[in-house]
Amino acid sequence: MSLMSELTADELSDFFLYCKEVNSIVADKRSVASGKLIRLVTANDLSGTKLLGDSSFRKALSAASTKASDLYPALAGPTLLLNLPALLGALAKLFTPLFPPEVRKKLRFEQGPLNKISDLSAVLDGPEREKFLTELDQLIYAD
What pLDDT score does 143 carry? Predict the structure, then answer.
């Protein structure tokens, strides 16, 4: 991944935490404005992630997730790990039943949203955005 040739895992983890902080500020403002507690949903598209090779990206994602859980416990909604490569998806299905129930409730491995999107600007507005949000709603509120 070319991103990891430019950054260390710690730097990327810090960037993920920065993004979480910005989202937390927005959620706080929306909570005050609406009178309802707004929670954050984390959706990570893992298309193209390789099981073998450099694990820096996975380490950065994992470290940021662990820190964010401690820093933002009230806002932690579900985490969606989207579009895992086939082998990683099979391993996730195999090991997910072994996770504690509270972890299984918050962590989901799914295919679908973003799997055909190559440019994230496509989900900023219009029909692609509506499709993306509908697919996320279905995954988040399934069960």
Answer: 62
| Extents of the domains making up the chain | 2-140
Residues in CB range of 16: below 8 A, 6 or more apart: 60, 61, 64, 65, 68
What is the pTM (predicted TM-score) of this model? 0.71
3-state helix, strand, coil in the chain (%, to 5): 60, 10, 25
Q: Output the pLDDT for position 29.
A: 95
CB 80 within 8 A of CB 42: yes
Under DSSP, the state recorded for 97 is G
Distance of CA 11 to the CA centre of its chain: 18
- What the block records as the tokens of 41 is 């949903």
